[in-house]
């Protein structure tokens, strides 16, 4: 097991295929319209980040995974983005960012949620927007993260791959699970993941404490109302 859940170069090369642009990217790109400076926090492979590039717009991508960020820097159009290695501690409090986004449930990987949103608030200008999504704890997605429910095999550019999830622990909204990836040579790349499931009230409290005065949490990418059955919490907060 390693600290970087995306530390295997072969798996990183599969990431964009497994997580293509969709409604989430459309949502964040729409928020970026008319902005001059955008920060993508937890940018990963930079698929969304590079699509945010526009004439006259400054785009910054921040990520703590050296492997993912290395991959992002090698992609077409990467030169138009400023890539920064690290977590919320490297986000500069410039106070001039128009929009900060965090896609792919990145905020669920952040243990210090209050500190992270405070750092992003410090980077934003007055009236700037922070947007991200998180899984709704009421939907209890982790109940499906068993080897029986998640096992699969497929042919990939890295060869034939066997995959499954193994739930390890659930404690106070903190869900720990292992992702198994068995390659053709028998190597099992096992990565320990920790996700923090936070309620809308918990997220709102951290945002308000960080200085956001207008917090909207919806149940989908098209403004659906939030219910217990909602899979996602789509968060938008204005400083």
From TrEMBL:
Species for this entry: Kribbella pratensis
Domain (Methyltransferase) ranges: 38-128
An example molecular function term from Gene Ontology annotations: methyltransferase activity
GO BP: any one term: methylation
Organism lineage string: Bacteria, Bacillati, Actinomycetota, Actinomycetes, Propionibacteriales
UniProt name for this protein: Methyltransferase family protein
Pfam families assigned to the protein according to its UniProt record, in alphabetical order: Methyltransf_25
Segments forming a coiled coil: none
Recorded superkingdom: Bacteria
Keywords, comma-separated and alphabetical: Methyltransferase, Transferase
Xref: SUPFAM superfamilies: S-adenosyl-L-methionine-dependent methyltransferases (SSF53335)
